[in-house]
Amino acid sequence: MNKERNLIIAGNWKMNKTVATALALVNDLTLALAHVTDVDLVVCPPFTALSEVAKALGGSNIRLGAQDMSEHNTGAYTGEIAAEMLKELSVRFVILGHSERRQYHQEPDALVSRKTRVAHAASLQPIICVGETLSQREAGHMEQVLETQVRGSLTGLHKSQMVETIIAYEPVWAIGTGQTASTEQAQEAHAFIRGLLVKLFDEATARRVRIQYGGSVRPSNARELLSQPDVDGALVGGASLDAQSFTEIVKNAI
Ligand code: PGA
């Protein structure tokens, strides 16, 4: 696919895979995707599998991401994981503000923005998730919700950090439901987010930021979604847990 920005396709494994099953998946992926050069590939296993998956990825073309991170660098924060700990394991990306973190852990935009700045300070590339719920969409509030989340999550970022930040548009109603946004709905939301980036930064910066779509991405809908001008990749949940379906999604993007 000939795109303005390099596509980035990331697998968010969520709370799935033991070390053993993570290694089996990653071994299949490194073989199946070894020839892919013009799409950036990322897998985000649970914390417990990061170390072994990092070794298995070795010098492959697949990069490592984490699913969340603490806003603190060290100290008495039971259960939390710091940026430096991720860096030590060769992690390059970190998902922040996923709707499941926002919903089940009450993570507000201000926290996402603090984590985003901590990630950049550690040279980790944040993947910031935003997206409206079904009731917000039906009430006609999609743009307002996206604007609040984008502005709130990006507070204090410099242009040079913004271009190293990835945004994932993930309509909550499409996550894990099998219900995908239509290509028109995805393009409309992505273009709206890029327009916000123009307002918050400038045109040149906004044109360089990659905006992924997430929410029931499957081999059958990946090509159409990724062919939209402002859709620069995918954040894949369920379909990233199986080597064949993740591979097919990537192949449909080439
Ligand atoms: P899904 O999840 O592909 O299973 O809908 C996407 C996500 O939550 O990132």
Tell me what the structure shows:
With 254 residues, the protein is an alpha/beta fold. The chain is built from twelve helices and eight strands. An eight-stranded parallel β-barrel has the order 1-2-3-4-5-6-7-8, surrounded by six helices. Strand 1 (7-12), helix 1 (19-32) and strand 2 (39-44) form a beta-alpha-beta unit. The model has no long low-confidence stretch (mean pLDDT 96). The structure holds 2-phosphoglycolic acid. Residues 12, 170, 175-176, 214-217, 235-239 line the site of 2-phosphoglycolic acid.
Low-confidence stretches: none
Give the CA-CA distance, first to last residue. 5 Å
Helical fraction equals 40-55%
Question: What is the rounded Rg?
Answer: 17 Å
**Overall residue-averaged pLDDT value:** 96
State the shape: globular
What would you call the quaternary organization?
A: single chain
Sheet-strand content, in percent, reads 15-25%
- Largest sheet features: 8 strands, parallel, barrel
Helix vs. strand class: alpha/beta
What letter string, H or E per element, gives the SSE order? EHEHEHEHHEHHHEHHEHEH
Question: How many helices?
Answer: 12
Molecules bound to protein: 2-phosphoglycolic acid
